[in-house]
Amino acid sequence: MGMHKFLAHSSNDPDKVGPQPLDEHLKGVAALAAKNASHFGAGKLAEAMGLLHDLGKYTVPFQDRLAGACIKVDHSTRGAQVAQERYKTAGYLLAYGIAGHHAGLANGAGQNGARSSLAERLADKSLPPLEEVWKDEIELPKQEDFGSFIRGLSRAGTTQDQNFQWAFLVRMLFSALVDADFIDTESYYDKFEKEGDKSSSHRNRVLPTLEQLRGDLDSHLKGFKADSEVNRLRAEILQYARDQSVLSPGMFSLNVPTGGGKTLSSLAFALDHAIRHGQRRVIFVIPFTSIVEQNAAVFRKALGCWGDEAVLEHHSAFTPPSVDKSDPERYQSQEKLRLAMENWDAPIVVTTAVQFFESLFSAKPSQCRKLHNISNSVIILDEAQTIPLKVLRPAVAALGELARNYRSSIVLCTATQPALNAEKFKGGFSNVRPLVKDEAKLARQLERVSIQHVGALDDNALIDRLKEQRQVLCIVNNRLHARAVYKALEDLPGSVHLSTLMCAKHRSMTLAGVREALRKNEACRVVSTSLIEAGVDVSFPMVMRAEAGLDSIAQAAGRCNRNKEWPVESSKVLVFSNANPDWKPPVEVTQFAQAASEVLRRHQDSPLSPDAIQDYFQTLYWQKGDAALDAKGIMSLLSTSEIGRLPMETMDHLFRLIDSVQESVIVPWDDTAKEAIRAMQFSDKVGGLARKLQPYIVQVPRGAFESLRKAGAVQPIAPERWGEQFQTLVNMDLYSDRFGLWWEEPTFMETASTVL
Fold first, then answer.
1. Range of the domain at 403
2. Pair 223, 268 in one domain
3. Which letter does DSSP use for residue 117 in this model?
4. HEC string of 45-56?
5. Between 598 and 318, where is the model more confident?
6. Domain end position, chosen among 427, 443, 459
7. Calpha distance 164→636 (Å, rounded)
8. Residue 482's CATH number
9. What local confidence, expressed as pLDDT, does residue 156 receive?
10. Each residue of 278-312: pLDDT tens digit?
11. Same domain as 100, residue 22
12. 3-state class of 737 per DSSP?
């Protein structure tokens, strides 16, 4: 062992590379962790964590284990104990992450988590003693080195708010540590790999600067002509938003009616703002998996030659499981996929709201790894109004904290701005600066439809109305209803059905046919669930919408007369209630619809004005009541905590954006998908193939997925290589051109009646 008696990792090939000295690993991780946390000012705290995280390896039993002894040794707790002894109160902030850097963050005390609490671990006297040599090899930062950061945290007033801040900081520091530990360990094991297989080659790739990306975006934007009223307005919106980029980092709103060009305006503002204020990346948070790919494609095109390199898509369709290093073949290929995804090391990240928010409340090392890269960034929250009400309060608190203490700018980007300002919403945002000059005036200028409630319609009456129109879009609240209405129309020219049970590739080809029919002024009658409301660029002269929230009605209105092809008075959005008991909407949709009906009565002249939208959300929040905006009581749980008793694991367990767990099924819909599935049987590298298969995924609730699996209709691709990660549909009789994945089986039919 030479001079180094104590080791961090044993060698795979001692003749080629020696074992990794423990002090070298601790100092390496400390330097990386300090760099990670420096972006939010906590470099010294993270450095101390890095130096202490594997301190328990300074014990005889752990060194025996490295030498081949078959014993289990807890090497995480000792460092946490030293942190708390050395740094007292501040030490708790470090101890959570040190103790949890492998298994995940535990509760501080007393909340009955699956993991031993931090208090139990700190009190554990049974651990093997540390060898004193550690004090000669490791020099810890002084406590006064952290004071300025902790004192500098901008504090919210209540105990609850302060504990939320401590919990948030614990998670951010944990992120800085686990990413650093992963990379340092990876770098050591890379020494055993062939040059082309090294994971570091990914980390060392040349990424474009934000300035380069802005140059390409400017070139792209020059191609747009202000040759119509709508295009002139879009150009004005873009310019005004860019002019505001000089404002200091913090909270912004981009409240632009649908069709106002907010996607590219938000990207242009974000790049300008990040460059001016030294922020590192732009993160787009998209509400639905179905449009992540679409938005990412828009950005790649807008960013020219750098697009492919600059834009990272991350959603949860394929989440690779952890793989043990003892299986090097599977390890290498899966880690390549994980590496970029899990730490968001790219200039432009496009992700889902589920991935973004659940990571901010997670206790898992793999999910938390990326969090430090969210700091000092511009975060565009697309369709901010879609944050589920049951988690609205903790989600708003997290966004506020990123802006307050982590040097991030948040842009609430929506056509229907929710009432989240502090004066209207408990714990809401303060000093939200608009990126639109005059929202009310803009709403009037972009007004393209008249909205009318036509009362209750049964299916016969609804279908009669649809038959009267050559071009009409009908949006209903569940898949079964959409299917029933479509089947009554399918013999008519131009009848089309859309559902999230179709894979994205199938939907996009169907929509391309719809756009072509509209362009040629051919018959076109589309029946869809709400999926068409999110970011789909189509324009109909009439839209019929089953009762829903005012934000959904506004989104539906965005698919009507989008470019002012028709007079406003003849471009109608007709809202109807269902007279058929079979299609009774879920309770939540009913509540949204009730609030919308009240507001529509109060704002008959301008139902989609900013005032009406604000009124709708205030009405909705009041109707729901405070408790419903934090349905699992996450914030109130924090009001009874203190720094040594933070409910880290419990918060992870309680915070879920969506309750039903979805499973990804790959549909071999065309030759591209079939070829990628074949290649996956033999390939050692999965990253590119996984990305290729992304457009062929259908998300299925777990119950329905299990029934498909039991019937042998789905099977894993090459389970000996990839485990259960990639499931493909093998019975294509269950997939139709009209309906996508459809199975007349009770569990599956039940899930089809939900709002999707």
1. 218-443
2. yes
3. P
4. HHHHHHHHCCHH
5. 598
6. 443
7. 10
8. 3.40.50.300
9. 63
10. 999 999 999 877 677 778 888 999 998 888 888 88
11. yes
12. coil
